[in-house]
Specification:
By secondary structure, the chain is mainly α. It has 10 helices and no strands.
Length: 200
C-alpha cells in the first residue's frame, strides 16, 4: 500500500487540529510535528499556515458535497419529498461523528470575520454547499419559494450543530427534524394549494 502523499497528510492533520482547537489556537509547528516532517518539507507544499487552512476548508467542502448526495439518495428513496426530508438524516450523520465540534465553516468565518479575508470568503462560500443542495431538492418538490425553505432548513441545521456541540443533548436531532418537517409540510402545503388553484 502506498504511503499517503505528504500534502494530503498535512491537510488531514490540519483538519483534525483546526476542528478541535480552532484555527488561531493551532501553531504551524504543531501540525508539522503531527505529520513528522520538517518545515522545509512543509514549504514545498504550502506557502503559509493560511494556505493550508484554505486547503483544509476545501477538503471538508469536498467531503460534505459527497456525503450530501450519498446519504440523501440512500435514505430518501426515489421521491423528491423523501430526499428533501432525508436532509436531516444527513444532519444526524454529521452530529453523530465522534469528532463533531460544530460547523468548521462557521467557525472559520467567526475566527476570520473580515469579509475581505480569503479565509472568510472561502468559509462563506463553502457554507453555501448545504443550502444550495437543499435548494435544489426543494425545487424538485415544485416548492415555489425553494430559497426560503432552504434557508429555514439550514438555519435549523446550524442551530442543531450549536446545540449538540454546547449541550451534548442526544435529542438534538429529534428536535431539529421535527422543526424541519413542520417547515417542509408548510412549504409542500403551499405548493399543493398553488397547484390546485392553477388547475381550476
Amino acid at each position: 500500500m502506498s504511503k499517503m502523499p505528504t500534502r494530503d497528510r498535512l491537510v488531514d492533520a490540519a483538519i483534525v487540529r483546526f476542528y478541535k482547537e480552532g484555527f488561531r489556537n493551532v501553531g504551524l509547528d504543531q501540525i508539522i510535528a503531527d505529520v513528522g516532517i520538517s518545515k522545509t518539507a512543509f514549504y514545498k507544499h504550502f506557502s503559509s499556515k493560511d494556505e493550508l487552512l484554505l486547503a483544509a476548508l476545501d477538503e471538508k467542502a469536498k467531503w460534505l458535497s459527497g456525503i450530501c448526495r450519498e446519504i440523501v439518495w440512500e435514505k430518501g428513496g426515489g421521491t423528491a419529498e423523501g430526499q428533501l426530508r432525508a436532509v436531516f438524516d444527513l444532519i444526524e450523520f454529521i452530529l453523530a461523528q465522534d469528532e463533531f465540534q460544530g460547523c468548521i465553516f462557521v467557525r472559520a468565518a467567526m475566527e476570520f470575520p473580515n469579509p475581505n479575508d480569503p479565509i472568510f470568503q472561502a468559509a462563506a462560500a463553502n457554507r453555501q454547499i448545504l443550502e444550495g443542495f437543499v435548494h435544489r431538492l426543494a425545487e424538485n418538490c415544485q416548492i415555489a419559494d425553494a430559497e426560503t425553505l432552504a434557508r429555514k432548513l439550514c438555519l435549523i441545521a446550524e442551530g442543531a450543530y450549536v446545540m449538540q456541540h454546547v449541550t451534548g443533548n442526544n435529542r438534538t436531532i429529534e428536535y431539529a427534524r421535527s422543526l424541519a418537517n413542520l417547515a417542509i409540510d408548510e412549504a409542500l402545503g403551499q405548493a399543493g394549494f398553488a397547484k390546485a388553484a392553477a388547475t381550476k
